[in-house]
Write a structure and sequence with these properties.
Layout: H1 5-10, H2 18-38, H3 47-53, H4 59-65, H5 67-75, E1 77-81, H6 87-96, E2 101-105, H7 130-141, E3 146-150, H8 159-165, E4 169-171, E5 181-182, E6 192-195, H9 200-213, E7 217-220, E8 233-236, H10 244-256, H11 275-279, E9 288-291, H12 320-339, H13 381-385, H14 417-425, E10 432-436, H15 438-441, H16 444-453, E11 456-460, H17 467-472, E12 484-486, H18 500-513, E13 517-525, H19 537-554, E14 558-563, H20 566-575, E15 583-585, H21 592-599, E16 608-612, H22 614-617, H23 623-629, E17 635-637, H24 644-662, H25 666-681
Parallel strand pairs: 1-2, 1-6, 2-3, 6-7, 7-9, 10-11, 11-12, 12-13, 13-14, 14-15, 15-16, 16-17
Antiparallel strand pairs: 3-4, 4-5, 8-9
Helix pairs in contact: 4-5, 6-7, 6-12, 9-10, 14-24, 18-19, 24-25
């Protein structure tokens, strides 16, 4: 009496008659009904019962594949990068398949808008670490699984350290009150890597390293915007079709990592292969990509697009049966490969030394800074080495360009190694960050220390709720005199619609009473769509017009955000009877022609300044030409980051790139952008 179904089955005779089995089933059914009707108070699981049940957790999997193949799953270590709508379901499937060790890598927290598609997202987990939530879930599914977490975003600068050495890996504490255990010292290289992130630049870096290091890898394509589950495919990444994320990743790999172009490539319906393509030998990359084609939507005109990224407000349309299916398919491909032991050949262990795979990832040798070290302090070697500078290249003076790397001829995505080396050595007090949001995510003490170390930084706000946080950076035990921009960002304009008069009054009072205070960040954005409200572009236009008029009236500079709205913005500039004394187009993503139109406006052309950040602008191939077109005395450097711990690193990369494009030394680039920032924010 009172035995669980599992324990009751354990007591069933091995050779029972059909009648005995039928009686046993009936008894189990009656007991189950009695328990349900009685609704007993739940009790903690009995340790003995759990121990007896443990061998049966994956009995169905063992029966399906056999003990030998299942043992391969138990021996396997899988690293899952990205725990969102696809990655979280893959983790669920891998855990329930009996994988022996899982490492879960993601820095993001659970957001309320994740609930529609992510395993970790529940009302009770909003605000919690995705890695922690999923680690706890995996342990509940399989207590024998060695589950670890890496709370970081995996990118080009840290992928090698994480894959090879488990940098930052910790065993998540079973109790929320306990500390995580550092287990990086006992790291075992993963037998398989699943890349389920949605940024093509980082995705390409992960692919390039794993291909070079010969780590088996499966990547997933984009799942946003797909309204129905039609077909989930597993193809080589070199030949996927109708998936933008896969296509953009492939383009980045060929452009930035020397992946071969001599693949057969996809043939679209109705398309014909050229004679050259027919004669070309097919050469796949050996990178499995699981994806759903994006040309099969049922509702052709419905839905909206978000701006992407990890912000809760930036999500686009998605459906759990699409993201989940892609995650399950990826887990299936990984499990089958592991059971077929396609990943265990010792001859393929270690980095490639011949062929194209040996050339897709930079070597660890880099330009020396001080003549003794082979690394540039503060700048990851993968970025430096990707500029095609070899070990034998000499460290040239920072006011020259590297041989063969003239700004007009080199790749637009990375600075030259010589200027990166010079930027790494540059004193922080030479650098002015003209646009940042450190007050949003950073500890105030850390932010103040960084502000004091730099030549200057502007705390740029996004809505009335964070104005005081930005102003507080200037106060406290160690006050710092930094400019502050107060305003309502277009992403948040829908939340401030009903209180427009109140916050406009408060904005007027603050801007007139606080020294070195400007209006911003204000602007227009046709891409970002609020997840909790209808798109209201008319409200954006009204908020922008009001704040622009206030800055003009008070003769205060203004910081402007503009995404896919250049026509409306230019019209408002031209129709205005007057404009603010200085206008800062931050992380400028417009074309060179739009920049020329602004700088040649009658009366106002000399009022426009243009800022550039590595996190936004180095993704665009047109940035090089835009920076070259920007007047020298109107060029600004910015990080555009909320995280102060990464700001200095990104500022130095962008500074080196500006020096390349303009033909300046890094010292001159720092001096010019610093003088421009002081002029812009000066009274």
């Amino acid at each position: 009496r009172g035995m669980s179904c599992t324990r009751a089955l354990l007591h069933t005779p091995q050779r029972a008659t059909p009648r005995a089995l039928d009686v046993h089933r009936r008894i189990s059914f009656v007991r189950t009904r009695v328990r349900v009707r009685a609704t007993p108070t739940p009790t903690p699981p009995d340790a003995d019962a759990c121990a007896l049940a443990s061998p049966w957790r994956f009995e169905g999997t063992k029966r399906l594949y056999g003990a030998e193949r299942f043992a391969a799953l138990e021996r396997a270590h899988v690293l899952v990068i990205g725990l969102g709508g696809v990655g979280s379901w893959a983790v669920e499937a891998l855990a329930r398949s009996g994988i022996g060790a899982l490492t879960l890598a993601d820095l993001d927290d659970v957001c309320e808008t994740n609930v529609n598609r992510q395993v970790a997202a529940l009302t009770s987990t909003v605000g919690m670490s995705k890695a922690h939530v999923l680690a706890k879930r995996v342990r509940d599914i399989n207590p024998d699984c060695d589950v670890r977490i890496v709370e970081d975003f995996v990118q080009g600068w840290n992928v090698e350290a994480i894959v090879e050495r488990g940098e930052g890996a910790r065993r998540a504490a079973a109790d929320d009150a306990d500390e995580d255990e550092d287990v990086s010292g006992a790291w075992r290289r993963p037998d398989y890597v699943l890349d389920a992130i949605d940024k093509e630049r980082d995705k390409a870096a992960i692919v390039a390293y794993c291909v070079h290091a010969r780590v088996p890898l499966c990547v997933t394509g984009g799942a946003g915007g797909l309204d129905s589950l039609q077909d989930v495919r597993a193809d080589d990444l070199s030949s996927t079709t109708f998936n933008r994320l896969a296509s953009m990743t492939r383009k980045t790999l060929r452009k930035d990592y020397n992946f071969p172009k001599d693949t057969e490539g996809p043939t679209f319906p109705g398309g014909k292969k050229s004679a050259a393509k027919k004669a070309r030998k097919s050469s796949k990359w050996g990178v499995k990509c699981v994806y759903a084609p994006e040309n099969q939507n049922v509702f052709k005109t419905a839905g909206t697009k978000g701006r992407g990224g990890i912000g809760c407000d930036g999500v686009g349309g998605s459906a759990v049966f699409v993201t989940g299916a892609i995650g399950f398919k990826a887990a299936s491909e990984i499990a089958l490969d592991l059971m077929q032991e396609k990943t265990s050949s010792s001859s393929n262990y270690g980095p490639a030394t011949t062929g194209w795979r040996s050339r897709v990832w930079p070597s660890t040798a880099t330009v020396a800074v001080d003549g003794s070290s082979n690394t540039v302090e503060g700048i990851p070697h993968d970025i430096i080495s990707s500029t095609n500078v070899t070990e034998t290249d000499e460290l040239i003076d920072s006011n020259e360009t590297a041989k063969g790397l003239e700004p007009s001829k080199r790749d637009a995505s990375q600075p030259t190694s010589a200027n990166l080396a010079a930027a790494a050595k540059l004193d922080a007090e030479e650098i002015f960050d003209a646009h940042c949001h450190w007050h949003l995510d950073g500890d105030q003490k850390v932010v103040r220390e960084l502000c004091a170390r730099l030549a200057g930084a502007c705390m740029t706000t996004t809505r009335p709720g964070d104005w005081n946080d930005a102003l507080a950076i200037r106060e406290g035990d160690q006050p710092v005199n930094v400019p502050v921009a107060l305003g309502v960002h277009p992403w948040w304009a829908h939340l401030e619609k009903e209180s427009k008069d109140a916050w406009m009054t408060r904005l007027r009072d603050a801007v007139t009473s606080v020294p070195s205070c400007v209006v911003g960040e204000i602007g227009l954005d046709k891409v970002a769509v609020p997840p909790d409200a209808d798109a209201d572009y008319e409200n954006q236009l009204d908020c922008f017009a009001r704040q622009l008029a206030l800055a003009t009236e008070l003769k205060k500079p203004v910081v402007v955000h503009c995404v896919k709205a250049t026509g409306d913005m230019q019209r408002m500039f031209r129709e205005a009877p007057d404009l603010p004394p200085r206008i800062y187009m931050h992380s400028f993503g417009g074309s060179s022609e739009f920049l020329r139109q602004l700088t040649t406006m009658k009366k106002y052309g000399d009022r426009f300044y243009f800022g550039f950040s590595s996190v936004i602008n180095l993704r665009s191939p047109k940035t090089q030409d835009v920076i070259r077109t920007t007047p020298d005395d109107r060029l600004l450097l910015e990080s555009d980051l909320c995280d102060p711990t990464r700001a200095e690193y990104e500022l130095r990369i962008m500074l080196a790139f500006i020096a390349d494009v303009k033909g300046w030394s890094v010292n001159d680039a720092a001096r010019i952008t610093r003088e421009n920032a002081n002029r812009f924010y000066g009274e």
